[in-house]
Amino acid sequence: MSKRWLYLALPPFLLVAAAFVLVQLFLELDADSIDRKAAERLTLYRQTILGEYQKYRYLPYMIARDPRATSALGLGQPVESANRFLEEMAENSGVELLYVMNAEGTTLAASNWRDELSLVGRNYGFRPYFKAAIGGAEGRFFAIGATSDEPGLFLARPTPVSGDPLGVAVVKVDMGPLEEAWAEGGETVFASDENGVIFLSSQPDWRYRTLTALPEDVRRTIETTRQFAGRELKPVSDRPVQTKQQLVIDGKAFRHNSADVGLLGWTLHFLVPEEETRKSVLPIWAAAITLCLVYAVIVLVLRGRRLRKASALLRRESADLKELNTRLVEEIQERRRVERELLEAQRGLARSNRLAAVGEMSAAVVHELSQPLSALRMFVAGTRKFLEKGDTATASENLDEIDSLQMRMAHLTQELKRFARPGESRIEKIDLRESVRVAEKIVRPRFEETGVALDLDLPDEPLEAETAPLRIEQILVNVLRNGADAAAGEQQGMVRLRTERQGSLVVLLISDNGPGIPEDLRERIFDPFFSTKASSGGMGLGLAISIRLAEDLGGGLSVRANTPKGATFELRLPGLSQDHADTDPKADLTSEAAE
Fold first, then answer.
1. What is the mean pLDDT of residues 123-141?
2. Which of 73, 263, 318, 472 is the most exposed place for a label (fewest CB within 10 A)?
3. Residue 423: pLDDT above 60?
């Protein structure tokens, strides 16, 4: 009898063991799925932070070069015209504060000079961003304002930009909208600095708390710089972090993933509640228990058949069948409930994918419009200066350039739609030399900022082609700017553009003398969001857009090693066909997809 019960108990035991193995397997699969999703979201959130930083990085450099902002340094006292200029610049650029300090750290001009909490006359020489900038470097520091008690990212540059610094130009960027966007996304994400202090968070209660208890020397440094304006900086949990992928905050366990932002030692953290990693456990155990119950019912039915007489057996069979049907109905209802939960999970995943698509298009818009906007600001500043001097002719030329740039940006938005949804563009007969010159105007500020020389080796005769001029300019701007970034670290950085013909193709060769691109990365650099610019904040979209545009125009874009060092990008375009050599065709092939 004991052996018989042992045989009967063996199938449920094997079923429970199989369920246990499946639970462990699905726990690992769920954890891997969450980690992959976290990696994707961290990449997106990192790009939003770096995009916000890159959006305003140029501004302190421009303020440091503008005598209207730095005139107070020469007089050694506040100047109302400088205050008005900074006030106007802050309003137009969208930053929170613009101000200029002398060599001792005293503010001589500020955009909030009219406010009760004006920075004019206040000394901020104790701030690290001032010390870095007065030493000739770029100052970057996130802190709570010592006067306004509002947090922000401080960016500083020495003035003048060359020679011995006489003062410092500072921009304060409000990062609050970034936090609001995180919170609206419904996900748990926060950023911590190099000391482990949380300064940006989708959960407001976590802000200005720490991942671990801060050492005394770190606390003293924070108090000296008044970085967090006397906040208590308590740890988020009394318990230390158990593992790298588990974090306990206010008694709740989270699966933890993190990524280096690549700016000021910041780290991004993405949290998912631990219970979400166990969603597959309940259905598996429910199915196993249901099968065990069905097995038990079957065993009882079979045992009853042997013990009862034939007449009684028929009546019991009917009852057992009813009971079995009831259990089967319950199982079907359970399965339907599980299917509903799976459907809800699929809908949530679809919503996340739509958010990711919106993030990619937003990053592309920021990437493609940043250069024309930078040039537009320079032309606006120059026009004001020429108008002050009464030079209306030059001011009128600048206004023409401004009008051209705004038309270009309007066309750029249409081209970005075509990148997301393939379409056609306006094809016309052009001289490629003019496209090169237009692109050179747009990227010239970047070359001046990096100190890299640009050599345009263009032929005397026209380089005629039937193509889309705006797309050609987009490609050239992206590749020339990458060349400037690559050669920026060289003592004598150089980017050279030359042309040649290869049969029916017109080839533009853009070479730099930077560090070059490793052979194993030459294919990947054309992938979206892949970038070799780890420190400069590149978003990895420029080359992906450029190769797409080049292929749409019937050409191609490739990269190879330069001699003796650096990289050479080869842009191949179809030349003007012989049948159209003596005519000036303009074919409007525009066919936009319906919105």
1. 92
2. 318
3. no
Cβ burial, residue 287 (10 Å; 0-12/13-18/19+):
middle
Are 183 and 176 in contact by the 8 Å Cβ rule? The answer is: no
pLDDT at 588: 42
Q: What is the rounded CA–CA span in Å between residue 268 and residue 200?
A: 9
| pTM, 2 dp | 0.46
Name the residue among 409, 470, 477, 411 with its Cα closest to residue 443.
477
Give the CATH class of 422-587: alpha beta
Tokens encoding 192: 């911590």
Closest to 373 (Cα-Cα) out of 426, 412, 400: 412
127 vs 135: CA distance, rounded Å: 13
Q: What is d(CA 170, CA 184) in angstroms, rounded to the nearest whole number?
A: 30
* CB environment 537-560: b (16+ within 10 A), e (fewer): bbbbbbbbbbbbbbebbebebebe
For residue 481, give the 3-state DSSP assignment. Answer: helix
Say if residue 135's pLDDT is above 70.
yes
Q: Where are the beta strands (DSSP E) in 534-579?
A: 556-561, 567-574
Q: pLDDT value at position 142?
A: 92
Integer angstrom CA distances of residue 290 from 8, 105, 283, 320, 332: 17, 74, 10, 16, 11
Question: How far is residue 324's CA from residue 252's CA, in Å, rounded to a whole number?
Answer: 42
Three-class secondary structure of residue 366 per DSSP: helix
Cα 405 from Cα 375, distance rounded (Å): 8
CB neighbours (10 Å) of residue 466?
A: 19
What type of residue sits at position 287? A
The pair of three-digit structure tokens given for residue 56, joined into one six-digit string: 């305003």
pLDDT confidence of residue 576: 76
Identify the residue whose tokens are 């901020």: 124
Phi-psi region of 535 (alpha: psi -120 to 50; beta: other; left: phi over 0): alpha
Q: Are 465 and 435 in contact (CB under 8 A)?
A: no
For residue 405, which of 425, 432, 379 has the smallest C-alpha distance?
A: 379
Question: If we measure between CA atoms, which residue out of 501, 520, 498, 503 comes closest to residue 569?
Answer: 498
Cβ contacts of 335 within 8 Å, gap of 6 or more: none
Torsion of CA 174, 72, 92, 43, to 10 degrees: -40
What per-residue confidence (pLDDT) applies to 590? Answer: 36
pLDDT in tens, 63-88: 999 889 888 887 777 888 889 999 99
Assess contact for 442 and 375: CB atoms under 8 A.
Answer: yes
Tokens of 522: 């030459």
The answer to whether the CB of 64 falls within 8 A of the CB of 158 is yes
Alpha-helical segments (H) within 66-79:
67-75
Question: Rounded to an integer, what distance in angstroms lies between the CA atom of residue 593 and that of residue 128?
Answer: 52
**Vertex 350: Cα angle to 344 and 353 (nearest 5):** 145
Q: What are phi and psi for residue 124, nearest 5 degrees?
A: -125, 35
Alpha-carbon torsion 523, 528, 530, 534, what sign?
Answer: positive
pLDDT in tens, 551-576: 888 899 999 988 888 999 999 999 87
Coil vs helix vs strand at 220: helix
- CB hemisphere CA count around 545 (13 angstroms): 30
- Identify the pLDDT of residue 255: 84
